[in-house]
Structure formats: C-alpha cells, structure tokens
Q: What sequence folds into this?
C-alpha cells in the first residue's frame, strides 16, 4: 500500500481511563516486572510501529486525549479518540493499559488486511486496529466495545492457542500475581 509521505500512518491509543475499582489501585501506575503498566503499553505501541502514542482518559498524561464524559466506558472513549484524531492518521491501534503480556507481533499482525476494515483477534475485542474514515454508529447505540465493533466492518483473526495467555486483562491483584508468573 502506498501512503502519502506527509501523513502519519498509525496512532497508538492506550485506553487508560478506567477507575481500577477491582484492582484497588490505579492500574496506570502499577508496576509489572519493574515497569509501570503505562510505560509498557507506550513501549509496545512504539514497537508496533505507531507514529505517535496517545493516552485516553488521563487528561494529565503526555499526549492525552480526554474523555468527553468521564466514566462512560472504553467504547465511548474510543469514539472520543477517533473524533479527536479526525483524519490526521490513516488509522488507530487501540491497546488497553492492563495487558502487559502482549507482544509487538500481537499488534503488528492486526495492521495488515483489507482496507477499510477494523481488525481484532477472535474473542478479544482489544487490542483493535481501526482505520480512519469509518462510518461510526450513533453514540447512544454504543454500549460496549463489542457493540461498537458489531456496527463496523471487522476482520476477526484466529488467535493461536499458544498466545492466549498474553491477552489476559489484569483487573485484580490476583490476576496481576498470576500474570507475573507467566512472563
């Protein structure tokens, strides 16, 4: 695919606006194997080839994209991010802050595919690649990431069994402990 030299190709967006209630501590600041989760996600986004990395839901963060309505959930935050980016990038790669076991290959494999389609791993709506220029559903029809993706053209990729553990979301202290054993 040929792209214009003056237009950045890929925005990385780290979804970090959650309340971390089940974790009992702010996940963004939590350390995993000696590094903060936000730093792991930033590094992973860069390794995947993102031209710029933004943080959703953290107005004080570097390259922040604020939520239009705090507490409205990740799908609404994704819509806010797409609105914010407009046509400045050819696409966005959304990554949750709480998946530190992901590897760059888990993201880069989502970048190749049919033009105009979102791409995600089967049974895992995050991470997800979303091209610019999608006809987005009305906000009042979007109640979850799955409902957002159900309204869009998506290429679902088969997730190899040997990668499944890397897609663990860390929502509790117990999940954090279990994930540390897998690294």
A:
């Amino acid at each position: 695919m040929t792209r214009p030299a003056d237009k950045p190709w890929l925005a990385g967006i780290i979804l970090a606006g959650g309340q971390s209630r089940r974790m009992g501590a702010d996940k963004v600041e939590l350390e995993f194997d000696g590094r903060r989760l936000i730093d792991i996600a930033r590094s992973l986004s860069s390794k995947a080839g993102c031209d710029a990395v933004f943080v959703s839901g953290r107005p004080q963060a570097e390259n922040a994209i604020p939520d239009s309505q705090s507490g409205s959930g990740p799908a609404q935050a994704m819509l806010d991010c797409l609105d914010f980016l407009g046509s400045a990038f050819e696409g966005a790669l959304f990554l949750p802050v709480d998946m530190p076991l992901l590897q760059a290959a888990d993201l880069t494999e989502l970048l190749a595919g049919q033009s105009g389609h979102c791409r995600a791993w089967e049974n895992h709506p995050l991470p997800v690649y979303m091209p610019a220029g999608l006809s987005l559903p009305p906000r009042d029809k979007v109640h979850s990431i799955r409902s957002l993706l159900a309204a869009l053209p998506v290429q679902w990729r088969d997730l190899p069994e040997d990668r499944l553990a890397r897609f663990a979301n860390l929502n509790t202290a117990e999940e954090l402990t279990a994930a540390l054993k897998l690294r």
In short: The chain has one domain: 10-182. Residues 74-85 form the longest helix (12 residues). The chain has a mean pLDDT of 87.
